[in-house]
Amino acid sequence: MSLQVQSNYTYPPNFFTNEGRAVVYFEKGKTALLIEEIVLCQGVGNYTIIQYKDGRKKLFSKTLKEFCELFGDFYFVRVSKAYLINLKYFKECSNDGELCVIMDNEQRIEISRRRRGDFQTELQRFLKKKSKSGF
């Protein structure tokens, strides 16, 4: 898989489109990330692959930790050293030997033992908000 690396990010992440959806701009405004369409982020060294709900992938020269900080207010949760998932696209948990999350696109991601508590807390918070707002 050959992905073009996106860099030269701009801050802060509080930019919004006319529809009121959260967007982060990269490459001096040329590349926009529509946060609500991101299913997960996968850290690969000092790079991060972002996977969208339509299956597209983009590679960024930014660490997964930086994306965790950037998406912290948007119900993303880090489930392992290599994965940050969007709870909006979380489907279910599976316990076939190892505890895994299954995303809407049927991708299985193992939850590390160290991050299980944080995952459960964030999932409960998300489900509580979801039931109140009805989205």
TrEMBL record:
InterPro entries listed in its UniProt record: LytR-like, LytTR_DNA-bd_dom
Its recorded name reads LytTR family DNA-binding domain-containing protein
Organism equals Arcicella rigui
Q: What are the entry keywords?
A: DNA-binding
Question: Which terms does the record give in the GO molecular function aspect?
Answer: DNA binding
What are the HTH LytTR-type domain coordinates in residue numbering?
A: 41-125
Q: From what superkingdom does this record's organism come? A: Bacteria
Keyword DNA-binding among record annotations: yes
* Record keyword Magnesium present: no
Q: Which Pfam families match?
A: LytTR
